[in-house]
Amino acid sequence: MSMLRLLPLLVLLSGCSSLGYYAQLAGGQWQLLQARQPVDELLADPAQPAELRQRLQRAQQARDFASNRLALPDNRSYRLYADLQRPYVVWNLFASAEFSLEPLTHCFPIAGCVAYRGYFDEQRARGAAALLRVQGLDTEVAGVAAYSTLGWFDDPLLGGMLAWNDQRLAGLIFHELAHQRLYLPGDTAFNESFARFVEEEGLRQWRRARNLPPPAAHLARQREQFVELVLASRARLAKLYAQPLATEHLREAKQAEFQRLRHDYVALRDGPWQGDGRFDDWFARPLNNARLLPFGLYEQWVPAFAALFRESGGDWRRFYARVGELARLPEEERRRRLAFLQPAD
């Protein structure tokens, strides 16, 4: 596919209003497509570094497991490799109003409305963020190590991914292939919760198949508590922003809430976690509304999908069929069904 043919397709995929934005999408995707190499050829090439071939082989084991055991798409995605010589493939820009937790959304004909805008160039993302800040918006630029084109292209393994441990690498492959298996335009919480469940259950089965012990329970609990802290802060901020208060008072109360969030984290880290600072880096940067936007989307309906998987007898194809039935429902009915499946607290 030539770059001239790629540009109209990405315009269709993006649905954005800026030709400059189209151009960076086309250029970035073209670079990615051109950098791809078949993994089988790299594995068969003795001139390739032994460490690279070992990591690629591990990735292919997880890729085979995804299709053979998890009934995920059997295609060329993640059977190709591209080293872009950078840790992230895209940078997502999140933005929200100064006193709101509602994201600035961008609507695409195929992907639907999402709470971010993606850039293949970090400086372009940060430049766009600076312009939004001039307008009084809170912004966050987050690097993304991998993403799915939802089956439009054969997505490759990326150089930065191979530095991850086996579990993280396998989990990402399962997660991104789940998006190819089923994607509902415009419902981020549904899509990400579904893919997160496939990732987590897939990893449980993958570890059992390799006779590996389950991951340390305290690490999973720490992550849950971290997310709970942030979601509690979001709830307090939402209540604050709903009040008819003067702007200066809102600003002071907003900053006080972020100080409370930091304090609560330190108390957790230095108390029950016994000094484990695995989330220190997240708190080291300035806090604002936009930094809180992704929280909750990836976890909201995971327990509901877990319940649906159990109802499906642990059969992946039956489970996917049931998820497809949910996806075809009107939004209000779909959320009602998911809430019914969600275990009571």
UniProtKB/TrEMBL annotation:
It holds the Pfam family Aminopep. GO terms for molecular function: aminopeptidase activity. Keywords: Aminopeptidase, Hydrolase, Protease. InterPro entries: Aminopept. This is Predicted aminopeptidase. It comes from Pseudomonas linyingensis.
